[in-house]
Amino acid sequence: MSVAGERDNLRITAQLNYPDAVNWAGGPMRMPKGLIKGPLVSFTAGHDVAAFLNMSPAFSHLPGNPLTNDFFAWASKQMTFLSYMAWPVADTTNTLESLSTEAVKDFSPALKDFNGTELRWLPNQKSLLLANLRVILPVLRPAPGEDDDFLILALFPPPPGNEPAPAELAKQINGRTNLVYYDWELTGPRAQQWEMLGHMLLTRARKSTPYVMRANRVLAKLRSDLAPLAGNTVTEVTREAPDELSAERSGPLGFTGIEMFLLSEWLSTLGAPADNSRPAAH
User: Fold this and answer.
1) What pTM, to 2 d.p., does this model score?
2) Angle of CA points 262, 265, 267, to nearest 5°
3) pLDDT, tens digit, for every residue of 141-196?
4) What is the structure's pLDDT at 214?
5) Is 135 helix (H, G, I), strand (E, B) or coil?
6) Is the Cβ–Cβ distance between 152 and 140 less than 8 Å?
7) pLDDT tens digit string along 92-101?
8) Which strand (E) or helix (H) includes residue 84?
């Protein structure tokens, strides 16, 4: 692993070598044609990243698991809650019906214990939703129109009349057969979005104390001071050989927005009383 300065950015490169060949099915990614709309603050694409992860059995055996396939995630500049994820499946209707049984059974008890949420299946709307969150209502359903062989997860309904996603993003993906993961973001605005989203998802799971709240206020100030310095951050992971990955990141801070949020959340718990620790799921 190496870190070097490059104009206004840090350039981080790493080689990951495995003891044995990893069974990864390469090939070009298939982006949805009409789902991804701008103006964007982030865009992520992955291809069978599960091959390189040690996932829990409950998640790895879910039908239509996006991490075993192509997946795409994006967020709009317009509002914090306009975040989406989509991935292709062989049969959207059957996959959702299977998820309505398997995911609800496997994850709802833990979610309810963690932050009071639960998965609910709405058969008439063919939708699986995460209930009991404030403001947002994450919903998984078949994508509309020409992308009807994709499932789409939306935190908030997309607004009408959005502009097409920049063609430059598609150029980073199209035709590349060894690309495992690609991520681009405007890190300053995205970090601010993750702060709001993250606290919304975690607040009910937290037993706050004055110590933790003071730490959170300090770290929120730190993030706001760093945010104007954070421009474009790009991360790529490619498969160079059956037993080797190459990872490269270019950005002004070396961290993405979600990494800044998670790091500050971890720092805010240092020295907290034992009964104020986060649940194991976090």
Assistant:
1) 0.87
2) 110
3) 999 888 999 999 999 887 776 778 888 888 999 999 999 999 999 988 888 888 78
4) 52
5) coil
6) yes
7) 999 999 998 9
8) strand 83-88
Distance between CA atoms of 4 and 18, rounded to whole angstroms? 25
Q: How far is CA 255 from CA 7, 11, 191, 263, in A?
A: 17, 11, 10, 10
pLDDT, tens digit (0-9, with 9 covering 90-100), for 193-249 = 887 887 777 665 444 444 444 545 655 666 667 666 668 999 999 999 999 999 999
Higher pLDDT, 137 or 84: 84
| Cα–Cα distance, 182 to 45 (Å, whole number) | 5
End-to-end CA distance of the chain: 27
Rounded to an integer, what distance in angstroms lies between the CA atom of residue 163 and that of residue 58?
A: 38
Under 8 Å CB-to-CB from 252, ≥6 apart: which residues?
Answer: 8, 9, 10, 187, 229, 230, 231, 233
Number of C-beta neighbours around residue 139 at 10 A = 19
Among 202, 201, 215, which residue's Cα sits nearest to residue 272? Answer: 215
Q: Where are the domains of the chain?
A: 2-88+153-268
Which amino acid belongs to residue 33?
Answer: K
Sign for the CA dihedral angle at 206, 44, 63, 120 comes to positive
How far apart are alpha carbons 205 and 216 in whole angstroms?
Answer: 15
Chain Cα centroid distance, residue 50: 14
How far is it, in rounded angstroms, from Cα 63 to Cα 118?
19
